[in-house]
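User: Second chain of the day. Same drill as before.
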Amino acid sequence: METVWYGHQRTRRCASLRWAVVGLLLLVLLPGRILAEGDPTPQPEQRFISGWTAEVIFPAAVRFTVTVSLPASELAAAALELETAEGQVIPVAVDLAEAVVIGDPYSTLAVLWPIAAEGPALFTEVRYRWRVTSNENVTARIEEGFSFTDARLEWLPDAVQVDERLRVTLPAGLGRTALGAIQTGLQGTVERLSAEAGPVSAAYIVYPADVPPACPRDGQPSVTGPISGVAVACDDADFAAIFRASGLEALTAPALNSEAVLRTVVEALVRQVYGAVWRGGTVPAWFESGLAEFYVPASKTDQQSVLLNAARTRGLLPLERLDAAALADDPLARAQAYGMVVFLADRLGVDGLLELARGLGSAESFAAAYQAALGRPLDRLVADLEAWLFTPEAAAAFAYRIDLPVTGTPTPSRTPTPTYTLTPTATPTVTPTATVTGVLTFTPVATMTFTRTPTPAPATRTPRPAGSLNTPVPAPANAAPTVGGISTVTLSLLILGAAAVLVVLVVLFGRRRS
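Assistant: Same format as last time:
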């Protein structure tokens, strides 16, 4: 009779059927402790295998583990094999002496499989099978699958598609509106490039700038397992191998929004399509960069501002400094590259610019093609650009968008157009009249009644008989003046008396009428 370890319990083997049944129950129940960690699905032949994991440590390796309810001393052999979505079977060597990370009372084996050696395609399922044999020649088997992906981000495989010509995988996080804008912009770009330069066939995966498709640059380049924390040496070539096996080209967008993603993909498309046209020709880096920017469906008026500031201080760059390194890191270099391309579009028209671009693959040199198209030497380009930047044509050219309808040139003609100024004239003002609403009725108006009030007749003079008058006596020297023979004092008294009588008569007459 011998002992076998199952989990933390020791069960004695017995020939009795009862103990055999108990042992089988333990084998079924014990894996539940491990299932809570990774929730693997119980399988008919797993026997003493109680747990398993597959951890993608992108892009370096996949770490496979298996846990068994036996001490390491009771394990005879272990084997692991993978099967890709294409049906390729890949055996992975397992050395028990190196694979054991926990040996007693149960055992955990861990194996690192380097991805780049035979990497599967991204976003495909990989199946793996463990087979572990005990010293008693009892074999346990499990089979499981995992999705092969860069687990640093959540992904939307083929989030944007333009029929069979273009596929773009994007990180999750872009909203429906942003995805729609990217789809619309790329649809128009693909159609235009197909008509103007050649067939389009591309597939991209876009990374954000904060999670680039490259190994860490802080210290020794290595990547760390998201579950185990195991560090594995990293090489940028590992990324390239995986993308190549997946049929994808990796791009890095400066930000995760519709404008940045669209610009990144369009520039890559232009370089790819025109690169096929230019194969065998020599094309300056600045022209390639500027033409790629020219196809981006957006206004570039901000680029003119950068160039104007540089031109005012005589700070435009010479052609020899507009190399690939400067275009990658210097905003002025990128703006000037685009400015020189749009200057050509202003001088030649959009069709002339594209004709020049298509002919560079067979041209003797870029300088010769430029001279033939513009009739000026290439070494005069920067000076011509500096003078042109301050013209109205330049402002119109920088506002040009390739996704809007064009008439052959991106700038208006120079024919002066008269502008009419309206002279202000007097405008008659109509005064609104009152509007009578409702029913018109007559309102009685007070009438004036005339009454006749008798006034006393003026006093009359009654002639007196002759001799009745006093004989005139000469007035003394100090006598009062007279009026008509009556002294002024007497006259005043008479007037006052008459006025008093008149007042009395008026009062009496008024009372009588009332």
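The domain at 3-148 is CATH 2.60.40.10 (Immunoglobulin-like).

User: Great, on to the next one.
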